[in-house]
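W.,

You were right to be curious about this one. When I first looked at the sequence I had no strong expectations either way, so I just let the prediction run and decided to look at it fresh. Below is the sequence, 404 residues in total, followed by the output.
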Amino acid sequence: MSGPLSGLRVFDLTRILAGPSCTQILGDLGADVVKIELPGSGDDTRSWPPYLRDDQGSDTSETAYFACANRNKRSLTLNLRSGEGQALARRLIATCDILVENFKTGSLKKYGLDYDQLKDDFPKLIYCSISGFGRTGPYASRPGYDVMIQAMGGLMSVTGHPGAEPQKTGVPVSDLFAGMYAALSINAALRHREISGEGQLIDIGLLDTTVAMMSNQAMNYLATGLVPPRLGNEHPNIAPYQVFPTSDGGIVIACGNDNQFRRLCEFLQCPQLADDAKFKSNALRLQNRQALNGILYPLTARQTSAHLLENLEKLSIACGPINTLDKVFSDPQVIARGMLVELDHPAPGEEKLRLVGSPINMSRTPVGYRYPPPRLGQHSDELLTEILGMDSEEIASLRECGAI
């Protein structure tokens, strides 16, 4: 079954993660994504180890990082520094519904591919620009990378343990959130175009999306004027809601309301805590968090993780193990939800490539997995023939002059 964006074509001028994660979402939803890459080198992440392995266990030329955000795309090499490459880009854009780019603001002007240079010739084009700081404001011309954006957007200031240095998250969430906001915005712009016939510019900044994703912590500050501290694994608004020690490691226990806290106390054989003047409401538990931890930690530390998880789940108390990725991808729920998929491997000598699946589930128009992450320029001839009707001589001429 075709996806909801089937029939739409994307001119994908993105690399690394924020942009490619956006266009991968569009591809999963059925769009025909034409990934434009520089001849000879391609997306920067094609050179970032670790490498995918063949059936002999040897490294191939394809990387895991590139594979994480580039399925459901076809790769076309195009040299935008050449006049022929720029002219070819415009011919291809004329056949596209959406253009996504994540160059530094203003960089595409020298290639004649900035929004203002295209909008009059292609009035229905939805042009999505993803950059570190957006297209306006005093930082617009600065490059932006995930770690610095996490720092500048406040995320690092609330991540890590009290007294320790600020920490970035374990995955580049500023990039990923920007990609998701971009994909959401593109779908809204498609709806607007359906109604009005008009394309438009979408301007997504990593700093903007990081500030937006600060959510409850940002509102904690705006409401009180108090800068939120780092709390480690504790929650700024709920207690208890954190990692608890066990006799063989640790688990997460999250009491979202007073009834859950009461059931937890009863299970841990300290029912009096639920009526204690210091702990009988969430606000009081937050105020006396350290005293509460001092009572609960020794009680959970006497029991195994498995025993706690089994019994707390029976009591409808939210809890979960702290899984490493090997456990994540063997978890029956993860498997049942299709979060591990296999596609034909792009590298010679390997039959299947395991990828993280899409979390999008739609009853009428489910996502599909049509293409594995492509090799550099794998589809250049195919796309030029299919989209522009070029013959082999024309393609050879473009290759000879360095345009592709």
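Here's what jumped out at me. The first helix runs from residue 18 to 28. And, maybe more interesting for your project: Residues 9-213+341-400 form a domain with the Rossmann fold fold (CATH 3.40.50.10540).

Coffee later to discuss?

I.
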